[in-house]
Amino acid sequence: MTHKNKSRILPAILFLAVVTIFAVVLAPRFLGQSKVVQTPQTSAKDKQVTELLAKMSENPNKDSQEYAEARQEFCILTARPAAQREKAVANIRQFLGMTDIPVEFVCSRFNGKPDDSGTDYNSPASETYEAARFSFTVDPKTNYIVETGEAERRWGTKVDGTRWFENMPEYDDTPTYTTSEAIKPVAEAFMIKNKDIFGVDITKMTYQFEGSKIGNFFVKWIDKSKPHTKDSVECGDVDQKREGAYKNDQGVWCLKSIYTTYPTVNMTIMQSGQVAVYDNDGWEIEKL
Fold first, then answer.
1. Number of domains in the chain
2. pLDDT at 198 exceeding the cut of 70
3. Alpha carbons 275 and 193: distance in angstroms, whole number
4. Backbone angles phi, psi at 171, to 5 degrees
């Protein structure tokens, strides 16, 4: 009986030994291969991005053909798919009131730092577009327009020493609204009409008139229900008698201050009613 039991147990032990060897020796190889297979597309993109950044670094002259080509390829490679950007394009056309105007995607900025100069090239934090010689900054998470103004214009010097400039946007300077009282309802109507492209509800904000200059009116809306408080410390040449002044561990006088800011939308609107500049500071505050 003992001999028979041993003969039955030995094959089972051998089988378990083979399975163990397979698990220890071969399984890691299969796992490693599966990991490589899962991310070839991402790895290829990362490699291309690195190569293009190196090419731009080697050709820092932004007016050179080499830099321009590398930059354009980089911007296309790191952009969201065109289908995801269609809503942003539609919002820009609505802002301009031109349903057929060509809208050009320029480039993205990326997460990682407060100024969107990070290096996570798979996660755009903002996008820049140009249309009708205006520049638009869009939040890719919502497709809301968060900033607009004149597009960057190139300039140079002619042979005779005079300068040349690229064309400006077309502005309507018709003096239709010439007072602060007259411009307020026009600015408010524009914001309410386009609430869906800005993601801003001015009915919950406080209106302020900031002044005017040569046919331009400067207005803003402040959301005082969402204060953003930030501590600031300045050391060195500070007023030692001010509240918050103290000496640090090195014996240097420092001043601790608390700053409170509020989400604010700034607008420059012309006397014709055309919006020339739009800037949603609240979008920047939310990222701090």
1. 1
2. yes
3. 13
4. -105, 140
